[in-house]
Design goal:
The structure is a homodimer.
Chain A (H helix, E strand, L loop, with lengths): L1 E5 L5 H9 L4 E5 L2 H9 L5 E8 L3 E2 L1 H9 L5 E9 L3 E4 L10 E4 L1 H6 L1 H7 L4 E4 L3 H8 L5 E5 L10 E4 L9 E8 L9 E8 L8 H9 L5 E8 L7 E8 L5 H10 L5 E9 L1 H5 L1
Parallel strand pairs in A: 1-2, 1-3, 7-8, 7-9
Antiparallel strand pairs in A: 3-4, 3-11, 5-11, 6-9, 6-10, 12-14, 12-15, 13-14
Helix pairs in contact in A: 7-8
């Protein structure tokens, strides 16, 4: 199994790929879009893409790919992993000598309180990625970096703390995009995207009603602007059930004519089902 | 009428405040939160806050205020204005001599194609705000800035082009937050925020059904993570109608017990109603 993902080595997306298949051949790409195109060109079997973080919300870069591209791939799995921010640096440093802590601004912000407690005199310094921050700390004593624990080992760095996140509820949900359709498992999710005609305000409820009246659970709804006109949106909806289930298929068939455009992004096993 | 808004002078929020009341006393504040607190402390009568942009989507800073704060204010109006990116600089410059164009990265991105056509050799340079970019261009010949046309006049700068946006559909919707409740006008919107209990996946449809079965139009739904647990959200929903209308009041009364927490953010005249 060849899995493409946002690189470099040591990203959280790489961790999700390993969680999905520990034996996979990992193929890092510079952008999420490049990772998806690798599957479309048959260079990889699956692309793993972050879609939603518990603290920050939707991952816009992935939603834009799903809404704008004529994709020859569909969602075939979801993976949820905890996001931990490890404090990493050259071994045998004293915290009292640390002058700077490097990381991506989002990671720095998510560890602000703990950094204040651990290294109150260190200055936070922004890096382009957590991987770049860890890379820079290999050359600089008296600095630490915040990043993925997996990125420390190849650089012979010490993990001073495996997780200094202020909020321990941080998780990211990833999707796997591939060319194969996944048969029903009995506990599945189906992801849909749709838009509505401009002259039909309020038709969102009309689109959702076919699911509601069949008691189909709707676990997520995300709206993104179409960029055509204020108040017009792409809606991303996750429902419980498989597109091959008669109940789901009937609901989609009834909902489709009430949309301007509806696309089934895929049916795949629910993550809870796999783990529990 | 004292209107607080995100400053400095020349922001799009200031333009929205003037659109709402050309005779208002304008009170710029450094953050959206400060502008809202000014109303809570009775230093201002209304705070104008951007809530949604046609190209970028929800304005997270404003949503976070609505979801996290115990507010003594409610939404009492909405204002929609076109967003135009003017090309501004010291007068009498030749485009062939321009070496840099300064602006907020979002504005630079939204004008990329037109900049390539107009000043192909100029380097884009990021500024903290469009106002800061325009301020810096007053001191630097051979530079231009992209920003709000209103910011050019006080600095005696020339407007080389009133709008170089690549996408002319750019609009921003603002809300006005105040202490007074607004009576029904016959064409109103009501904004709600709610969360659902963690152990009730799929209950979103249960919450929306009381509106659907009464044929109440739902013009917008926006979800934001609660930051407590992946898959739990604050939902921001706009419906057509006033909370004092019996139909709306009944629907809210039926929906409320299906939520964990529901708050009415306000009822206010629809923007289209005012303008058309």
């Amino acid at each position: 199994m060849r899995i493409s993902h946002l690189g470099p080595t040591g990203t959280h997306t790489e961790s999700a790929a390993i969680e999905y298949d520990p034996n996979a051949q990992l193929m890092p790409y510079p952008t999420v879009k490049d990772a998806v195109h690798a599957v479309e060109r048959d260079e990889a079997d699956l692309a793993i893409c972050a879609i939603e973080n518990a603290l920050e919300g939707a991952v816009i870069e992935t939603l834009v790919i799903l809404q704008n591209e004529i994709l020859s791939v569909n969602i075939s799995a979801e993976i949820v992993i905890p996001i931990k921010h490890a404090l990493i640096g050259i071994p045998n440093q004293s915290f009292t000598n640390i002058t700077t802590v490097h990381s991506h601004p989002q990671a720095l912000a998510q560890c602000r309180d703990n950094l204040m407690a651990l290294v109150p005199n260190a200055k936070p310094v922004a890096a382009l990625s957590t991987a770049a921050a860890i890379e820079s700390t290999t050359r600089n004593p008296n600095t630490l970096a915040i990043g993925n624990i997996r990125a420390a080992k190849p650089q012979s760095l010490h993990v001073y703390n495996p997780d200094i996140s202020d909020n321990k509820n941080n998780q990211t949900r990833f999707i796997a995009l591939g060319k194969n359709l996944v048969p029903p498992t009995g506990d599945d999710k189906t992801s849909l995207i749709f838009t509505m005609a401009h002259d039909l305000p309020g038709s969102l409820v009309d689109v959702l009603s076919p699911f509601a009246k069949r008691k189909i659970n709707l676990s997520r709804i995300e709206s993104r602007p179409t960029r055509q006109q204020l108040g017009t949106y792409y809606f991303f909806v996750d429902i419980h059930g498989h597109q091959d289930d008669t109940l789901i298929a009937d609901a989609i068939k009834e909902a489709q004519p009430k949309t301007q455009w509806l696309n089934i992004l895929g049916s795949y096993p629910r993550w809870n089902y796999i783990k529990s």
